[in-house]
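Aim 2 progress update. The chain analyzed this quarter is reproduced below.
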Amino acid sequence: MVTVLLVVVGGGLGAVARFVLGGFIDDRRAGVRAGDYPLGTLVVNLTGSFVLGLVVGLGASHRVQLIVGTATLGSYTTFSTWMLESQRSAEDGEPGLAWRSVAIALVAGLGVAALGRLLGRAL
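Predicted structure tokens:
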């Protein structure tokens, strides 16, 4: 039961962190045309990937990985929003932006996850 409660709390914290950070970035970009790159989503997904790589690299227990990775970072990062924003870009006549969004996030996401793991192992 304690693990379930920690998942609930961690998930809530991750969702709030995503809302705050994404909103902060989007607010700073107010006035930028709607078709521009979804930077808030990218920052959230990359920081989440890095932290998950770090947690795994540190050799955290299965329970910690479940709570931090699945609950907190699972609700913090946002695959569905990333896909929707990419699809909307293509639908709005900007297929190049859509493909850039997918490619940058995939390559950079893998890179920061690997960097987090390496850093975690080094610590």
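Helices lie at 2-28, 39-57, 62-76, 79-91, 95-122. The mean pLDDT is 92. These observations will guide the mutagenesis experiments scheduled for the next reporting period.
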